[in-house]
Amino acid sequence: MSKPIEEELKEKVLQMYSKGLTKYRISVYLSMPYSSVKKIVTECGAAPVKFTRNCIKCGTEFTTGFSKKQYCTRACRLSAPKKEIICTCGKPVPEGRRKYCSEECYIKNNISMSRERKLREQNRIQIEIPSGKNHSISEICRLAKENGMSYGEYIGRFQ
Predict the structure, then answer these.
(1) Is 99:84 a contact under the CB 8 Å cutoff?
(2) Alpha carbon distances (Å) from 45 to 17, 18, 36, 55, 56
(3) Closest Cα partner for 49 from 63, 30, 32?
(4) Hey, which residues does 136 pair with through a beta bridge?
(5) Is 90 left (phi over 0), alpha (psi -120 to 50) or beta?
(6) What pLDDT is stored for residue 61 in this prediction?
(7) Between the CA of residue 84 and those of 75, 89, 99, 151, what are the distances in Å?
(8) Residue 146: its pLDDT value, please?
(9) CB of 48 within 8 A of CB of 60?
(10) 101 contacts 93 by C-beta, under 8 angstroms
(11) In angstroms, what CA-CA distances link 4 with 1, 8, 15, 63?
(12) CA-CA distance, 37 to 156, in Å (whole number)?
């Protein structure tokens, strides 16, 4: 005889919980309410999974309920060396800054990025004028200047 669906579901929940999945992830994976998963786990008295890790700062072995925890204490975490961030110019970013080494780098990168973005947008938008060709905004601006008009005047002629 086959087991009832509820028993199979309980076994699945407990099996997943014993492998280290959180109650929330189990509820999402099995498409059932979190409260149901929590009830099954507490009724069956399943103990939460504990992970044994070595602190990457001091090397002390510790147990935790979180699989990604790397430090044994808050003091170890705060005293650990931070990763060095490199600016777009190649220089290391000083402490207290996030992405750029100086104001000059910030301005240089943001202005050049916005210029590139504007140029890409201008060349991406194609406008058809009565000559039968599709032109980018920059081409239409050039044609308007050649005819001694503004962009708006030039487009207005064809609408």
Answers:
(1) no
(2) 11, 12, 14, 30, 33
(3) 63
(4) 126
(5) left
(6) 92
(7) 20, 14, 11, 48
(8) 83
(9) no
(10) yes
(11) 9, 7, 17, 37
(12) 65
Give 71's contacts (C-beta < 8 A, 6+ positions apart).
Answer: 55, 56, 57, 77, 80
DSSP character for 41? Answer: H
| Amino acid at position 85, single letter | I
**Distinct helix (H) and strand (E) counts, the chain:** 7, 4
Question: What pLDDT does 1 receive?
Answer: 43
Class of residue 108 by CB neighbours under 10 A (exposed 0-12, middle 13-18, buried 19+): middle
Opening angle at CA 58, ends 57 and 64, nearest 5 = 80
Question: What is the Cα–Cα distance from 37 to 75, expressed in whole angstroms?
Answer: 35
Low-confidence ranges of the chain (pLDDT < 50): 1
DSSP string, 111-126: HHHHHHHHHHHHHH-E
